UniProtKB/TrEMBL annotation:
Active site: 385 (proton acceptor)
Topology class, membrane: Single-pass type II membrane protein
Name assigned to this protein: Aminopeptidase
EC number from the UniProt entry: 3.4.11.-
UniProt site positions, description: Transition state stabilizer: 471
Subcellular location: Membrane
Domain ERAP1-like C-terminal: 614-729
Species for this entry: Loa loa
A Gene Ontology biological process term: proteolysis
Annotated positions binding Zn(2+): 384, 388, 407
Family annotation (CDD domains): M1_APN-Q_like (cd09601)
Short name of one Pfam family: Peptidase_M1
Membrane-crossing residue ranges in chain numbering: 20-40
Amino acid sequence: MRKETKVRYKEANSSLQIQILLILTIFFAFIILLLTFLIFSSKQRFELQTTVHQRSSTNNTSIINSQQYLRLPTTIYPLHYDLKLQIYLPYREGLNFNERNFSIHADVAIRVICLHATDRIILNAKSLKFDESDVEVQNSYNESMPLISINRYQHEVNNIHVVEIVLMQELDSGHDYMIYIRYQGIINDVWSGGFYKTQYNINGETRLLALTQLQPTDASRLFPCFDEPEMKATFKISIIHPMGTSAVSNSPVRHFRHLNSKWSKTEFGVTPTMSTYLLAIAVSDFVFKFRHCGKIEIRVWCQSAMVYDIDYALRITCRLLIYYENFFSIPYPLKKLDIFTVPELRVLAMENWGLITVRQKLVLYNQRLNSLRERRVVTDVIAHEVAHMWFGNLATMRWWNDLWLNEGFATMMGQKAADFVENTTLRMSQCFAADITLKALSSDQHTTMTQPISLKENSDRIHGQDIKIIYNKGAAVIRMVESTIGKEVFRQGLNLYLVEFAYANAEKSDLLSSFSKIFKAIDHHHDPFFGTNFSVYDYIDSWIYQRGFPLLKVQQVGDYIEISQQIFDFDNNSEFANTQWKVPIFTRGNEQDEVHWLEEGKKLKLLHGSRTFVLDPNFHGYYRIQYELEYWKLLIDHLLYRHNYFSVSTRLKLLDDAFVLAETGRIPYAIPMKMSLYLRNETKVVPFITFLTRFETILYRVHRHSSASLFNKYMQFLMEPSFDRIIKAETDSNVPRNMEFE
């Protein structure tokens, strides 16, 4: 019995030894595999870091190829940002946060969707402090995904900063992910953009306020983000700010509370889907006035000492909203619109959706202290920015090469709306020509110094575009298009465009597609391209992708006039000598201007009979016109004895063309000088302004010559009969100043 037990014990002991040996074998095999993986992973990580170090060692700023990260990859797309900020702004004397003064401590949670499998998340972050320990990526199961590294790069030309988050495993296409980043930023100076500070005085005390200016690529100075116009998302903002200040953002306040004796917290509702550059916040001790415009609350913020000077801005903002809603047949999509006046802004105004920021001197108006000129400036500025609530904010250009889709339309529509607000036609009938089209022509007459309205789609340029071309030429060409296709077709086309691309992005071809759809729905007799061998696409392309503008040469051949074109170029640059356009030639019709086409490389013949005619009688075209010398003399006779035969815009165009053509040696100076004699009978101010602008060039050239006094006497001779009108114009101004906006 005992022997049998001993044998069984030996068998059991032998079996146990085998099991232990097997377990040890498996354990050591696992250890070997684990060590192999770790060594390989470390080697891979070391190689990646070495590559990054090698990039950095060649250039301290880690600049990479512009084609790689100038544009963010399309593998990841943002859906929503939850941004929480604590603002350390010592806004009043005696308030001190010590080493945290002028800093931002923040968290951002970004919900993204993966469109193509990738192991990298590429986003923008500029001058923001965070490292791997501050970043977490979670999958849809709330599981953290391990990181390999975070690499930073900079595109020097466009000042674009990129952060590359490298993951140990790929993100799956079609799945949502969360990116959490805790970071620190700074409150910059006004010219750096992002979130910046500025100051004002109240009762001898210096006060500070802070606000955003994010266009074009400075949202990434405020928070890590996908900082491109096309990367639209919704935003939920929460701000902890010093007690005694108010926080304002794009959306209405959802919740406000005092945290303690030092801090307040303001939470805002979710924004519409929009581009990052339109996000805005402002922290200040400003006050506001408000009014309701239907269901929309309008507020204008300012220093407490200026609260009585914002009534006009408050009143016209409501009228502007009504005008645009009716014109576009699309309601304003937010519940509120704030206008925040600031002492300093690196642009004149910025169209942040629901929170317009603007230099205070352009919005404040006191009827007892300010002139009519200053009131019109207020109207123009606000009209331009409110137009952006539709053009630019609701429908946004896909990339910065099509900035004219935002700014050209806002400039033109702003002039229309300003006329509506002031119950006048002054801007569109006279001032648009003088203050926008003529300025655009002057900016566009040197081919070596100008640029096209729209850069090609693959253009790397973001900064350094010619604002006068984008705004003024863009608006002038758009107005020419409206005159070509008709006001109602134009309005319907814009409505269709805004409806189709609401909360989305578009490019030039999308806008033209909307016009084409309207053409197909109307009688072909109202289609200006019917019977031609080109489309609205061809027409527009010839104007937005080419620099400069045409000079139309007009010759009389019996009862006909023959029109040809060549580029107007002060520089006589051979590179552009053969540039041609599809030119709409406007002539006076029975009820409205008629449109004829001058195509590239061809001449146009028109029957004119015996009556005196001028091309482009209402100055809707973007070109200059050179008549034969004998015909110039005939036009001068009409101006001298029947100047009202021509519209005001025609009179100023004839003057401007004649002086510029003389300046380039195409006609003798005797033509514009004799033409200007008619000004003694002129009753409108705008032609005088045009004349003085051109005559100033002559005075500058002869100011040291013995004949200078004669030119001064001639100017006095012309202006003497109208002196009182000119003085009144300079103080009250019939001509609103055209300015550059964002």
